[in-house]
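User: quick one - fold this with manganese (II) ion bound?
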Amino acid sequence: MPAPAYLTQHRNRFLEELIDWLRIPSVSADPKFHGDVLKAADYLKDKLAEAGATNVEICPTAGNPIVYGDYMAGPDRPTVLVYGHYDVQPADPYELWTSPPFEPVIKDEKIYARGACDDKGQVYMHVKALEMMLRAGGGAPCNIKFMFEGEEEIGSNNLGIFVKANKEKLQADVILISDTGILANDVPSIEVGLRGLSYHEVEVTGPNRDLHSGLYGGAVMNPINALCDMISSLHDANRHITIPGFYDKVDELSADERAEMAQAPFSETEFKQSIGLPAAVGEAGYTTPERTSIRPTLDVNGIWGGYTGEGAKTVIASKAYAKISMRLVPHQTSDEITALFQKHFESIAPAGITVKVTPHHGGEPVVTPTNSAAYRAAAKALETTFGKKPVPTRGGGSIPIVAMFKSELGLDSVLLGFGLDSDAIHSPNEHFGVFNFLKGIETIPEFYKEYAAATR
Ligand code: BES
Ligand code: MN
Ligand code: MN
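Assistant: Sure. Structure tokens for the protein plus manganese (II) ion:
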């Protein structure tokens, strides 16, 4: 399908507006950017209003505000609640960016900036899709409520409170989210699952002060050595996780379901090449796509302690630390896994070491339906704009609020994302294809059209 004339005509302005928004470093994890987070929320509010949304407001929370706006097509029309996030991950390490993270550039038809794909670029597709429908499409065929938060990357705690307190305002028929990806630009797909999360900071303590490693080394348990031993014991030789009870509730897929998953195009060679690895490593008995979607995992995200400055210092540190996360699948729950991890990690401390485990935010896994009107509408919309039927895929990432939308509002979500795994989200040189941005703007109105038609 040729791109709508309006999109072709206004694409440069759409890109410039997105770039202006990406210039604002809306990093939620670092209080030093709090003012910028507020600025990014204001920018979004203004653009939503300019696009034609009504009741546009900044809803304060105990943390970063939620940007709300709506468009009412009529009481006989279905209502879609669009969710996304305008906060971004920290841009560190800055020195690994080829252009500064908050000075966006378009290079090789890709927009480079922190948040370009996750999730400001994808949120902006929705704002521009609204503009296009209202200015060139005679209006939108669905009622639309927009709810964009500024704390997704730090756990969505305040959004959870907001959702519970505003059920009436948020009443809808389905949730639409663009914060995931497709398999490739010529392989459209729809994510139908997200993993949950259990995240911990661990502190291990040995001697009551740092020690000279010549005077004491070999006679005391070194906390860093101990932490490494403990971490390495969390996987066995088959890369199974050794925490007792960890797999008890894991939903095992049937052979048929696994065979169906294997139909989705995937190249192991390209996977390895794209990240510069000679081998893919993971849980025995599962393929790479299975390991990154239907299986739970455990990873160390950071580890520190002791001397890390210039040159050599001979020392045994008093303390060592790590941040350890687990990705969860149905029907694991973050509370249960958090308790199992905590108990197990404390129990494996060697003599002479004490352990403190501090859980961070968690999230529940979800699987979204593929037999709903909204899923079918999304599939048709992608088929129209990509010229190919999309394949359903289970995603590896987490969006904790999605499970809450189901439990609190009773609503399923459709994950109509347009990113690519190669977009380097959370990494240096995050980018978003201009093709993907424009395809999103083109596809979203098709979704509303199909969904309105199906529910008539
Ligand atoms: N948009 C991502 C999650 C994602 C990316 C899902 C790609 C599927 C495909 C989201 O912003 C994110 O980064 N979530 C975090 C969890 C959050 C609690 C910090 C994650 O998955 O690590
Ligand atoms: Mn995101
Ligand atoms: Mn993210």
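One thing worth noting: The pocket of manganese (II) ion (ligand 2) is lined by residues 85, 118-119, 152, 179 (CB under 6 Å).
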